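Review form for a predicted model. The reviewer records the input and the model, then writes brief findings.
Reviewer: anonymous (R2)
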Amino acid sequence: MGTLFVNISGCFFMGLITTLMVRRLSLKPDLMLLITTGFLGAYTTFSSYELETEQLLVDCKTPQIGLLYWFSSPLLGLLSFGFGVSLAKTIQPINQVDE
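Model under review:
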């Protein structure tokens, strides 16, 4: 559950932060990569997700638990990312961005 939480919250923050950065800040591409891929990429744990999926598939008496975890993580991540984008747009509507 810890890896799932970290990955889902990382997706949310990725959507929120990237949308705010694009709409509000004029950051250089290198700095955007550092924040998104560097910091948020380090925060999320795709390799741990894969390891835990494999362990659930092998160790659980019912492989459905492993399959549910494998399927729900990216789906929840995508939904969480979209929620972050929507929240960022609510915080900073495009017609209020200083140009």
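Findings: The helical segments are 2-24, 29-43, 46-59, 63-91.
Further findings: The chain has a mean pLDDT of 82.
Recommendation: see findings above.
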